[in-house]
Amino acid sequence: MAECGATAEGLALEAARFIARVEDRDLTVCVLGLGYVGLPLALDLARAGFAVVGCDSSPAVLASLAARRSPLPHIADAALEALWPRFAAAAPVAGRAPPADVYLICVPTPLSPSGAPDMGAVIEAAELVGPALTRGALVALESTVYPGATAEVLRPRLEQLSGLRAGRDFALAHAPERQNPGGASVEQSRRRLVGADSHAEREMALGLYRTFAEPAAVDSLATAEAAKLSENVFRLVNIALANELAATFRGMGLDPWAVARAAATKPFGFMPFAAGPGVGGHCIPVDPVYLTWRAEGMGLNLPLVDAARDIVGRRPGEVCAEVLAALPPRADGGRGRILVVGAAYKRNVGDARHSPAVEIIEILSEAGCETAYCDPFVPQLEAGGRMLSAAPVDEALARDWDAVVIVTDHDRVDHAAFLRAAPLVFDTRNVLAGVAGGSARVVQV
């Protein structure tokens, strides 16, 4: 791997050389974090013809990739075939990332136990990249962060550990991830955003991202950071509105899904969002907090965002309240045997982070119900301090339940079959609309 030789005069001349090397595929790219964001990114880069080094701290992920198996349930082993000729996975060695010309940081940015942004993984990545950083390299942060975080948290650590300066000796960019796990459209994740604080840094980042995506440029790191948060705050607020409207229309005796379909016939000024049992994953429950936390630190408030978080946060409890109110008394004095169908936060993925299914299981269990779950994508689930194992769908169908609660609507699950498994089926996703068969009473919640 040749080293780019940036001078103190800046990256302007080096940007042209970097882009030429991009066009020749004469660069090694290191992707830090091989999860839901990093592994698809590594695939994109390998397909584009780059040598890719994947760096991850998880022995299980590294072992799976060493055996040429996908560590993610929504990515098939066969889909990784594009990786192998140009890909190697490794753990950090001696506190350093592998040598590379480009470092793309794709690590989790969750919330701390106190509910504040947890930048620990970004700091750890900076401590790995800094000692390995060379002149003329590009570092891009894909992890979602609050406005100002790339400049305030990542940049000083990279500069201190490398002895180099961003914007003069190496390029620093923020290219917020837009992965849609389980989504049908690959094109959605190709439309990317790239922000940097200088023209040369933007050109270097754009040169790389154009090889596998359709990037748009913005003129600062902070603008790109704020744009990503805006995207998911928009989703949160509209999901909250969809849930509020659904509850109102049900109270009026209307089918909220039919109302939403009717409104969606308007070709402008309306965008359909689905009501449901709550929100989950690593984006919508987390990203708005990164914005409100930053805003509050600057004396600013977002009451609409706070209200939306409250509305969606109440949904698992509201679902459980309807289930418990509908359960008939049992001769043995118990509250009932409940099967939760779907534990992932969204369809066709195996990610249960912040899934409303977890809280639903916990609330029903605390109320005295005997609970179990089935999900072909989530073999194990931690709920209420216990590690639960998924019941196979055919086994679950063979048992008697007092109620079934459909939380996640995976395509590979025959939800209509559960109409024969219990006298009550609570459908939080409208997946049974128009489905006939069985003797169950379907309750839309």
Automatic annotation (TrEMBL):
This protein is called what? Answer: Nucleotide sugar dehydrogenase
List, alphabetically, the Pfam families matched: UDPG_MGDP_dh, UDPG_MGDP_dh_C, UDPG_MGDP_dh_N
Q: Which residues form a coiled coil?
A: none
Keyword entries, A-Z: NAD, Oxidoreductase
Q: Which InterPro entries match?
A: 6-PGluconate_DH-like_C_sf (IPR008927), NAD(P)-bd_dom_sf (IPR036291), UDP-Glc/GDP-Man (IPR017476), UDP-Glc/GDP-Man_DH_C (IPR014027), UDP-Glc/GDP-Man_DH_C_sf (IPR036220), UDP-Glc/GDP-Man_DH_dimer (IPR014026), UDP-Glc/GDP-Man_DH_N (IPR001732), UDP_ManNAc/GlcNAc_DH (IPR028359)
> Signal sequence span per UniProt?
none
Can you name the source organism? Caulobacter radicis
Q: Which domain of life is it from?
A: Bacteria
Q: Which GO terms describe its biological process?
A: polysaccharide biosynthetic process
SUPFAM superfamilies given for it?
Answer: 6-phosphogluconate dehydrogenase C-terminal domain-like, NAD(P)-binding Rossmann-fold domains, UDP-glucose/GDP-mannose dehydrogenase C-terminal domain
What region holds the UDP-glucose/GDP-mannose dehydrogenase C-terminal domain?
339-434
User: Has the keyword Oxidoreductase been applied to this entry?
Assistant: yes
